[in-house]
Amino acid sequence: MKPLPTNESRLAPESVTELTVSSEAGSRLDHFLTQQLPHLSRAHLQRAIEAGGIRVNRQTCKSSQKLKQGDIVLVEQLEVPREGPQPQPIPLDILFEDEAIAVVNKPAGMIVHPARGHWDGTLASALAYHFDKLSQTGGPTRPGIVHRLDRDTSGVIIIAKHDQAHEALANQFKSRTVKKEYVAIVAGVPDRDSDIIEAPIGNHPTQREKKAIRAGHPSSREATTFYKVEERFHRFALICAQPKTGRTHQIRLHLAHLGYPVLCDRLYGSRSVLTARQINPDSENDIVLLERQALHAHRLTVTHPMTQERVDFQAPIPKDLTKVLQLLRAWRL
Q1: What is the CATH number of the domain that holds 260?
Q2: CA-based angle 58:64:67, to the nearest 5?
Q3: Residue 150 appears among annotated catalytic residues
Q4: Which of 150, 152, 193, 320 is catalytic?
């Protein structure tokens, strides 16, 4: 393994490693990497591939990609995962708890699990403090974590307390039997009352932190979102979105693709802050109303992993979004 010369890489050249495929031709990419980088778990490497930190012949790829002799695998310097999140006494809004699962109303601004540069203040650290046992299926840095929400998305998230519950829940997400319902305040007013968005999502061609609508690209995967308009305002709307698939940034990207980005979405929208005068130009007090994306995981319906009963969990719309809606309704009148 040798570092790439500075003038040959756009992937932070000082931290990129080049691996050349020879006798391993025919192997899956993730299998190849576990042999070459034994200090990293296969799950950790798969997440790095999905995030775009590992490329084959400078192209984004999938864990299952079969390698050919002479392929060049570029590996960005990967932080070795720690043994697990340190318990931290972070308050949690626990909506439900029994011996198998817990359901939490995650606040906006909280990262779900540790990642590069974000080892403290995560939901995983809060869970480690509040619960005596959590599933280990997701690996040492994700105890109990079955699915995730973006940092600035609030709302319902379900936690597994043991591996049996984790596996049962994960299978439901995989088979798409989980019903997810989000509320979003968007810029613009859709002309249709409801519709289905079917647009494949893949890695963004130039910005690693973003996703993009990309048909036919190796990184692209099908993505489907049903939405309906709950309320229309002057230049804004309240949307209910039900994603049928679970791609990264799916609702945010799909709504932006339609021309109705989620308010204060820094990646896919046109503004990062919403003030009172942007709703009502006559407002005397131009206070900041919102500084995070106006997206909330309002409802989650699953089959309980132990009782097999269908259970429904809801998180109330948070105060910051409620305040925006109150002003929108007042201005509409």
Answers
A1: 3.30.2350.10
A2: 55
A3: yes
A4: 150
